[in-house]
Amino acid sequence: MLPSDTSSAQRSVSRVKTRSVSKTSTGPDKSVLDIKSSSQPTLPSRTRSVTAVLRSISRREVKEKKVENLTPTQSGPVKRSVSTAKNYRSRTPSSSTPQRSQSRATVKPIREKKASYDPFNLLSKSGTSKEILKKIQASRRTGVLDMSLAKLSELPEEMFYFLSLPEGADLKHKSLTPLRELTASKNSLEVLDDRFADQFDSLINIDLQYNNLRKLPVNLKKLENLTMLNLSNNKLPTECFKALCGLIGLVNLDLHNNHLDGEIPEYFAGMTSLQSVDLSKNDISSINEAAFSGLISLKKIDLSSNRLKSFPFMSVERLPVQEINLSYNKISGSLISTARISRFSDLQILRANHNRIEVVSEFAIILPVLEVLDLYSNSIASLGMLLICTPSLTTLLLGRNIMPKLPEGVTGLANLKTLDMTHNQLTELDSELGLIDSLELLKWEGNKFVEKSLTYLTTKDIKFRLRARLEQEQGVSVESGSPEQDSSEELAELILLQQAAKSQARAAAGATVDLSGRNYREIPESILDHYRPGGIYRYGSEAVRELLLQRNMFNTIPGSIQDFAFADALETIDLSSNQLGDYGFDTPISLRSVTNLNLSGNSISSLYMFVANFQLPCLARLDLSFNKLDDIPQSLVKVFTNLEELNLHENKLIEIDVDALKGLAKIDISNNSISYLPPELSLIKTIVELKVAGNTFKNPRPHVVQKGTEAILDWLKLRLPEDDSME
Q1: CA 326 to chain centre
Q2: 528 membership: H or E segment, kind and range
Q3: Has residue 690 got a pLDDT over 70?
Q4: For the segment 234-261, what is each residue's pLDDT rounded down to a tens digit?
Q5: Which domain covers residue 677, as residue numbers?
Q6: Residue 369 falls within a domain, yes or no?
Q7: For residue 498, is pLDDT > 60?
Q8: Is residue 659 in some structural domain?
Q9: Would residue 62 count as lying in a domain?
């Protein structure tokens, strides 16, 4: 570099630095730009570093200007010198410019939020909250929509738009999951849109409790897949049953705490799948005789807290009802009004507390599986022979009645655990209460007992005192021991004789011998002696026709059944819940009159020995549910030619042999592992009832299965080979 060139370059750099320092108060200097534009072509190649310095200074100045012009929402907190801030204020021409820039800066985040919850750019202007819109969009993927506690007065319009399929959409390729569950409880809904049932016919569960519903759409019956409907705590009148009567697939219906009044009509008749109905806390005064008559699957009825004066028990006698609640009504006189002996084979819980009942029934009522009987707070003086016909009773609540003594037959309840006799008119306790080994809780406060010594004793101590007193009355000596020790052999034999006497009383009333729940491994000799020909029992017109041996420990079917004097008249044998297994049929048995045999819950995995060793020419109903069967032999229907009903519920069946089911009228193969339902089943013309739910096959679909036997058979017929369908 020449000396002259070097000195000229240095002078240029010093001038640029001086001007850049003074610029902070006066803005950018045009001379700097002139130097940049004029110096680049004139400077020699060795002074290009000076040009780079100039460029960096100009870039820094431009950046500082941009930072000064930004608002706080765009740049956040910006550190700058005091002089820069002053220059910013001095250069601002008016106060309107930063306001416009700020308004433009705040628009962009709002648009970004729109896209996050409204991908179709249809933000609701009807007042629907953003949270509900998000839930509606999420339900497109999950099929579940929860809008509870959303302060809704009507269903959002966006729900009908976003959750509906366009016409002609291909179900196999749609991206929308059909809505299956809807919860809109605790809102202010008053009506349901008429489009509701048309657009959401795939709904399975609807929860609309705690609203102000006063009316239901008439086309509600289009919800063919609906199984659970909760309309409790609304303002629905009795007319709402007209809209509900077409829901043939409904399983659970809850209408408690509404404005139902007057008589309940027979609109339930077509709801064949209904299992539970809750009509409590209304103003219902009567029930139509045919209201429940067609509900072949009904298991639970709750009519508590109404104004009922009676209940038509005869309309549910043939139904599989397990629980009836009639508490807090105005039922007076007889609870079960009947003019004949009646039998409720499946009833397990009966509650009728806080009424004005005087008599349970004028005639004998057979309740073989009743476990809970609640008659608290009534006007009952006697139960008659009722307890003789309730062998499975575990809880008996008779507090606040007018009973002067313990009800007849209470000491024969071998399974009784709780007995409430508080606030009656008892003066003493029957000594035979001490023989009820299963009794865990005895309540007797508020009576007129003479024996003050029993006042502060526990149930266990009272039983021990009563048992000791009974031994003295009977003149039987027992070995000394603690209250937990069992009674002596003499006392045990006395118990057996009493049980035999109770069984004979049942035979006179209902032709039944009940030996259930005794933990028997074999039938005791005392019982056999009682019922052998020539014993105490006398064969006559009231011959025993039902033998109950369930809930024992039999590992083989006792051949001694054939030794009973009534063996030839026996029609029903219940051996459910024992331990038969695969070796329970080794003993050959011949019973010519047996039509009903229950072998459920016995871990049976094979029927070949049963078919080989049992001669039951009149067998019509066979219950093999809750076992381990994986195969049904064809010989079953060939040997038992009169067999009409076969229950194979809850087994391990994998496939179905159609030939093994020919000639049957009622078949239950539900809850197995059947992966394929053969179309040839539809060729069995005798089938009137077919239950196949709860298996692993994918076809027919659940909505077809729920419609019942006729729909299943029609579906199978369409899949028959052409040759078979022509036949």
Answers
A1: 22
A2: helix 525-531
A3: yes
A4: 999 999 888 888 888 999 999 999 999 9
A5: 497-726
A6: no
A7: no
A8: yes
A9: yes
